[in-house]
Specification:
Largest sheet: 4 strands, antiparallel
Strand order of the largest sheet: 3-2-1-7
Order of helices and strands: EEEHHHEEEHEHHEEH
Radius of gyration: 29 Å
Structural class: alpha+beta
Shape: extended
Number of domains: 3
Amino acid sequence: MTPGIIAGLHTFGSQLNFNPHVHMLVSMGGITRKGEWKSYDFIPFKMLRKQWQTVVLKLIRKHLTAKEKENVQPLLQKAYLQNGEGFYVHAPRQRGHVKEQLRYIGRYIRRPAIGLNRIEDYDGHNVTFTYKDKRDNQEKRLTLTVEAFIARLIRHIPDEQFKTIRHYGMYSRKNKKLSKKLLMAWQKVTKRWVIKVNKVLRRRTWRERTIATGNKDPHICPKCGNYYEYKGEVCLEEGRLVIKVALGRTAREYLEEEIRYLNQKTTQIGQKENRAKNKQKNRTVFLPIVS
């Protein structure tokens, strides 16, 4: 049976440390040699852990020279003995709506090492960002110098032409056309959804979304033509202006000042309109009678 697999390589941990691991999206079924679809409910991840350990260690040995093996072999043996149950594999049962899972996983696989929403402060010398400590499941903060932050970040930039996402089985380029035909036929008969991903869509930025709607580039000043530097975002929620993103304390203070100014202007305009309405109501209409 041939399942469909989309694998994404991540090299980073929550603190931007080097923590290489692979995320996989696996179809809950596959195509048999007879060209029929066959479903399965669960992957025995205990067995998968041992197999994953064996494959990884074999691949490392395969790409070592004889001299390198002499130095690395003790480390490989130690990695094998200290992980008696195999390398870590998290393979939970499918839960929730399939489409929602696909949207979430599609974004997660292509996500960057750190998002703007995690950066809390930048003062020109240090960067403070939040991360989730998986040991106690608590959100914590880490402050690094600019140099240390950049050093941690750039190590996760892949080499040119290096593919961090791969497609295997019925999602591979070779089997894609055949798989689509079989899946469409299977869906018509069973009326059930099968995990299928043609491509993982990268979430567009606010700037890209604005340009796509036919508007001008919001990062270019319409008057002087200079390029704006992104510092944050303010959105309207339930009639109130709310800061969504602020890169640093200075940016937050500036956005707060702008919000206060706009709120003040809105109040002044409202008061002016009310005075005009009251003035209109208090007018006396005089109609002279001519005989």
